[in-house]
Amino acid sequence: MTPAGVLTAEELGTVHLIGIGGVGMSGLARLLLTRGIPVTGSELREWPSLAALRALGGVIHMEHVPGNLDGVDTVVYSTAIPADHLELVEARSRGLRILHRSEALAAAMTGRRTIAVAGTHGKTTTTSMATMVLQHAGLDPSFFIGGEISEVGSNGHHGTGEYFVAEADEHDRTFLVYRPFVSIITNIDVDHLNTYGTMDGLRAGFAEFARLTDPEGFVVTCADDPYTRIMAEELRAEGRAVFTYGEAEDADLRLTEIVSGAAGVRYHAALDGESIGEVSLPTPGRHLGLNSAAAVLTALKLGVSAQTVIDGLAAFPGVRRRFELKGIVNGVRVYDEYAYHPTSMTAALSTLREVAGHGRLLVVFQPYRVYRTRDLQTEIATALAIADEAIVLEVFGPGEVREPGQGGVALTAAIDLPAEAKIFVPSWEDVPGEVVRRAQAGDVVVTMGAPPISLMGDELLAALTTEAETDSSDYHAKHSKD
Asked: What pLDDT, in 10s, does the model give residues 95-144?
């Protein structure tokens, strides 16, 4: 039942998405297309997601021009699109409906019970795991994810079931648009203070999101995180249903015997003191185990059997840009990882350190947002120092202005590594050569940070392949003469 006055997806008409190739916008586009909504979009770069959108019937314009809005009813933009963008200006002049991405997503949620996943870290992985578990249970949920489930190869889908699993982004307060049946809050950490001002402001924002939860639904959060723990106590005092997970002794879903290695992570889980068995994931990292617990607890409270949950997670293939192995060339393993906040960077690099074993760990990092790099420079530098060598690009911060002394140069200088083990590389084209010069058999190389760096992994593999072929040719040429 759709509440009176709430816009539905079918009322959007033909939808045009500005910057349709980005992971959030492409997920929304895929969701609308699989629901039968006509979609067009504009881009300047051939993102990997565009081919799939075209296959679903999406019309993609590889330029930003006013004519892209011909025949369009609704124009959708993200926070990254400036107010004076020529297509937004044209949309206003034509009197078209203009929606933020979150508002369009809220329209697509109508008629479903929404499971909204928020938190400073782990949103994408937790959303993906919850989706996979419900799919394994045969519930065919709709979903919107800020990344692609590797096996499914999708970040948005319109399902036939009653549930809609969605990643809820707090960075610009847009998660306050949603009205969840279930709210999951993985953790609350220092970030987005350009929006919230202080940690108290950030905590208040998450609490407001939790209070939007349907009275007949419930909130799921982590008992190990100090801020979510306090929030859970406050919500329970208000008479709200809150369930917690974690290693804390009083967690409703308690995790014990957590073991993480290169082959994956596993732990024993007990709900309200009763064992539900061992949960295992084929991807490593204690932090991923904790994220999975949120999905486990949610599914159990929705009535999914424990064995179905365990079986679903055992088949979880991971999420693209989350500990994603791009390829191996000449003994060098290349991974891609979305982490850009120091807490998630530390977790990811510590896990990759385990995977590297006796080899070295090289990180290629593109900082994400000027304000974050400035405010958390020391913490980001400390995380990068987990690696043996660090290659740092300039900050990716659309619409932001870097002041003197801010950015990649300052961050590189702050990393506690020997001078020869760290370097600032301002030119994208120079990065593959720098990696080829430094990497050797047995090493792990990870591209990490802002969205554009996801495209670097393939370039590194190509450069490493060319180097290997050149070395082989030189070897054969030398020995043929002998």
From this structure: 999 999 989 999 989 889 999 999 988 888 899 899 999 999 999 999 98
167 is catalytic: yes
Q: Which of 43, 148, 167, 324 is catalytic?
A: 167
Check 74, 124, 221, 412 and give the catalytic one: 124
Distance CA 409, CA 423 (A): 9
Which tokens belong to 387? 């690696």
Average pLDDT over the chain reads 89
481 is known as an active-site residue: no
User: Across residues 329-353, what is the average pLDDT?
Assistant: 89
Gap between the Cα atoms of 388 and 447, Å rounded: 14
pLDDT-derived band at 238 (thresholds 50, 70, 90) equals: very high
pLDDT at 169: 83
- The CATH number of 109-314, from 3.40.30.10, 3.40.50.10420, 3.90.1150.10, 3.40.1190.10, is 3.40.1190.10
124 is catalytic: yes
Which whole-number Å values give the CA distances from 328 to 331, 399, 466, 468, 471, in the listed order?
A: 6, 36, 13, 12, 17
For 324-469, CATH number out of 3.90.190.20, 3.40.50.1100, 1.10.10.60, 2.40.50.140 equals 3.90.190.20
Whole-angstrom distance, CA of residue 392 vs CA of residue 407? 10
Task: Tell me the pTM.
Answer: 0.72
- Reference 415, options 443, 380, 446, 450; nearest CA is 380
What are the domain boundaries of the chain? 11-100, 109-314, 324-469
| Per annotation, catalytic residue among 120, 123, 394, 434 | 123
Average pLDDT over residues 369-398: 93
DSSP secondary structure letter of residue 6: P
Strand pairing report for 163-167 and 113-118? parallel
pLDDT of residue 473: 55
- Residue 34: pLDDT over 50: yes
